[in-house]
Amino acid sequence: MKNTIKQLRVAAGLSQLEIAKRAGVTRQTINAIENDKYDPSLGLAFSVGHILGVTVDTLFDPGSPAPEPRGPGGRHAENKGS
């Protein structure tokens, strides 16, 4: 899902690590969210919004597609029909 987290974070003068520590997640998680590779849980989305001083609807564009599921090793998961 497209988001504005990186732009808001940079404008606030915060690093990915600072956001991660305050939200209780890893820096890699924040990086993955910023790069549209991971959609956060609702709780994490609210936490990041609170840290950045904005509402969740300011952070995310619900009209954008979700990231494709990835299998082991970061490869796209294959849809094995039934």
Can you put this structure into words, describing what you see?
With 82 residues, this protein is mainly α. It has 5 helices and no strands. Residues 76-82 have low confidence and may be disordered. α2 crosses α3. The chain has a domain at 5-59: 434 Repressor (Amino-terminal Domain), CATH 1.10.260.40. It has helices at 5-11, 16-23, 27-34, 42-52, 56-59.
Which features does this protein show?
mainly alpha, single chain, globular, 82 residues, 434 Repressor (Amino-terminal Domain)
Task: Briefly characterize the structure.
The protein is an all-alpha fold and 82 residues long.
Q: Which CATH architecture of the domain at 5-59?
A: Orthogonal Bundle
Number of strands: 0
| Helix and strand element order | HHHHH
Question: What fraction strand?
Answer: under 5%
Structural class: mainly alpha
What's the N-to-C terminus distance?
28 Å
Q: What's the helical proportion of residues? A: 40-55%
Query: Low-confidence stretches at least 5 residues in length (pLDDT < 50)?
Result: 76-82
Radius of gyration: 14 Å
- Major pleated sheet: none
- Number of H- or I-type helical stretches: 5
What is the CATH superfamily label of the domain at 5-59? lambda repressor-like DNA-binding domains
List the helices and strands and how they pair.
Blueprint: H1 5-11, H2 16-23, H3 27-34, H4 42-52, H5 56-59
Helix pairs in contact: 2-3
